Amino acid sequence: MKRLFLEWAKTRIFRTKVEDARNIILRYANMRFYVAVSGGKDSLALLHLVVHTIEKPIDVFHWDHGPYLMPRKIENDILECIKAISPRIRLHVLSSPKLFSKEARWNYIMWYRAFYGKLRSFTKKHEFKVAFLGLREEESISRRRRASKICERDSSGVLLVYPLHSWTWLDVWAYIFSSNIRYPKIYDKLVRIYGWRKARLVTFYDKEFEHFGSIEISKYLLPEEKEID
To answer: The pTM is what?
Structure first.
């Protein structure tokens, strides 16, 4: 598959998508912006693209889900992947003390309140006007509705921009391998379960996604982790 990704990276279709994404980024380059990076493949590809399109320090927002939703070994690997992209990154890691408890595994309302509360404070403090996100319309129905547009404003007035909105999973992996981007090691296990097309990095033992089989998958991927009491 890796050979396929590298071959796809040579195609005119792929090169056009990369150029289109760069043009979208350049459109907002002079505004106060940050890049939202979860550590998943899409956001890492986006960050690399922004760094290699705009020649100035790049502010990065990363949300730490806490040890009960994102084991420390994986979280540390994610942070190293982000830092490896460029020394020009200014990494802002935010979280909430409430998420460093087992309650975080099932009380997702608490998670949403903590996340959006911290995010609003973060954007207001630094006076950000634009946020680059790695949402792609291929991923899900809800994301398709959002990422079918290049941008939209959130409730606080920040412009959310989706440079990779038209990219496919093949484009993302092609970009990662052709650019030699380091990605979290957990993906190698995810690929063996889901395949390259469907492999996604999400929170573990998360009750919100239990109906998708996330608990059983978490047990398989992270047998050393204990499920919620």
So the answer is: 0.92
* Burial zone of 171 (CB within 10 Å; 0-12 exposed, 13-18 middle, 19+ buried): buried
3-class DSSP state for residue 162?
Answer: coil
Give the burial class of 66: count Cβ atoms within 10 A of its Cβ; 0-12 exposed, 13-18 middle, 19 or more buried: buried
CB atoms closer than 10 angstroms to residue 211: 8
Per-residue model confidence as pLDDT tens digits over 58-71? 999 999 999 999 99
Cβ neighbors of 65 (< 8 A, separation 6 or more) are 75, 95, 99, 104, 111, 203
Q: Return the C-alpha torsion angle 117, 123, 125, 126, nearest 10.
A: 160
Tokens of 131: 């946020």
* Cβ–Cβ under 8 Å, residues 86 and 60: no
Which residue reads 């990704």 in tokens?
5
In degrees and rounded to multiples of 5, residue 62 shows phi and psi of -130, 135
Tell me the pLDDT tens digit for each residue of 150-184: 889 988 899 999 999 999 999 999 999 999 999 99
Task: Find the DSSP H helices in the chain.
Answer: 2-8, 12-27, 41-51, 72-85, 108-126, 141-147, 169-178, 186-194, 214-221
